[in-house]
Amino acid sequence: MPMSDLEQKTPTSGRINLDPDKAEQGLGQLVLTVIELLRQLVERHAIRRVDGGTLSEEEIEKLGVALMNLEVKMDELKDIFELEDEDLNIDLGPLGNLL
Fold it and tell me: From the record, what ranges are coiled-coil (predicted)?
């Protein structure tokens, strides 16, 4: 018998875990997924600006440090919620994976 979308899924299944007993991990997964999506968008925009020559050396340095710090913090939060990188790649059904 197939599981419905509202039943528990493992984090690695690519879906948000909606088990009421593990709501904290499911919410953490959702929040970290949104943060990771935004981080990737900011990183891509930063690369375009660096490649376009619109940033000073100091701005490039600050941006690099900020992105590295964000990556470290994301790793810490993934450890807290016991998530892996692939757990943040949510399955959007016919649209494919989010990340």
Answer: 60-87
Helix axes 57-80, 23-52, angle to 10 degrees: 160
Give 67-93 as a 3 state SS string. Answer: HHHHHHHHHHHHHHCCCCHHHHCCECH
Domain ranges of the chain: 22-83
Residues in contact with 32: Cβ distance below 8 Å, sequence separation at least 6, in sequence order = 74, 77, 78, 81, 83, 88
How many CB atoms sit inside 10 A of residue 26's CB? 20
Strand partners, 91: 97
List the one residue out of 97, 90, 94 whose CA is nearest residue 15: 90
Q: What is the DSSP letter of 15?
A: S
Global pTM value: 0.68
List the structure tokens of 95. Answer: 């649209």
